[in-house]
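During the second half of the funding period, the structural biology subgroup turned its attention to how the target accommodates small molecules. The most pressing case was nicotinamide-adenine-dinucleotide, which had performed well in the primary screen but for which no bound structure existed. We therefore specified the complex as follows and requested a full 3D prediction, including the ligand pose.
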Amino acid sequence: VYDKIQIPAKGERITVNPDFSVNVPDHPLVPFVEGDGIGIDVTPVMRRVTDAAVRKAYGDKRSIAWMEVYAGEKALKLYGSNTWLPDETLDALRRYVVSIKGPLTTPVGGGIRSLNVTMRQVLDLYACVRPIRFFPGTPTPLKESESELTDMVVFRENTEDIYAGIEWPADSAEVKKVINFLQREMGVTQIRFPASSAIGIKPVSREGSERLIRKALKYAVENDRRSVSLVHKGNIMKYTEGAFRNWGYDVARHEFGAQPIGDGPWCRFRNPRTGQEIVVKDVIADNFLQQILLRPEDYDVIATLNLNGDYISDALAAQVGGIGIAPGGNIGDGVAVFEATHGTAPKYAGKNQVNPGSMILSAEMMLRYMGWTEAADLIIRGVAGAIAARTVTYDLARARTAITAPHKPGEHPKATEEV
Ligand code: NAD
């Protein structure tokens, strides 16, 4: 029994199987966080689109019993006393397994780093999953034919790496202690300016790497994908990023029966569901950023560390024009929170102007995760149809410009909006 959260009478709990797959009843209880700022614009639209897709796909047989849970400014109003992320919200997200959220304001000061980061840590949502796909008609910085070749799903490790926030500022007593330890006990000589250095620590574990890469490999099997690429800087950071790569190949060989291609380390295995071959390969992160522009068709599922994943997800989203419509999910062992990847855009809040695409496509990922693929497919068709028909919000409309008049050197070309 919760304090503020009302549990709908009609609806059942999604549960997690021992292999971390989920059991979804026909009328599952699904928690949602409306979100701050433009959450009020995009979350209701997402619910309407999702309900319509589910009704169209399954009639009365299936429906979602939405259950509102609170975080951010709405929680603060409702629970008071500086409660941005109530315990009962975290409990509901865990207990009801699959949920979706709008963007949340990051409170300034008050000792809270970020609600999103806290949520990921407390619920151990160790994989940040971002599908990157192109919808024809979306304005992108590439030629349409090149954008069309970009179709990837990024699995970014969410809990480790230099991103874990273990660092000490220059001149602090703590950093002096760490530098002292490194120099005296560990024989480190290569800190260039020890007197004025800050220090950050990069933990990368076998367990953390294996569970992320295992998830990416399973995804490739379940979604009939052609390859999984481990993206790393192991040439420089041998024991962290290099180990990530080696542990990845170990998982592919030991748990998926992959066999080396030639002398290895690239390897391959047959998808037990479809018989298709899945190739497991690796690529150095800087080269990868070139390759996604030069040969995007060579890449499919991507597994990478936290910081690389941050850069790669945004670069790929831009490549398909999708920063404003890029969806995401944070997934642990069963428990998953899907979310729009943009922020709260406070300037537009309540004006019914912003793009609900990111939130709608996050719901599409959620339906697919629940195994409701027919409804998910309908959402993809709907979004693709709306973009192709140019029924789009201002962010896509204003990017779709064409040069109309010839211009002299030094003169700015005149651009007109096509939509
Ligand atoms: P933002 O994403 O809110 O805005 C960046 C730009 O994108 C702005 O120009 C905005 O108008 C535009 N934009 C964002 N979403 C859009 C949409 N759906 N349709 C059209 N245009 C859209 O990022 P910001 O300004 O850096 O951050 C604002 C607040 O959001 C901060 O409090 C930040 O902490 C928070 N934030 C939350 C999340 C999250 O909850 N996942 C993510 C990023 C930022």
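Two results from this model are relevant to the next phase. Residues 38, 103-106, 116, 324, 339, 342-345, 348, 354-355, 358, 395 surround nicotinamide-adenine-dinucleotide (CB under 6 Å). The radius of gyration is 23 Å.
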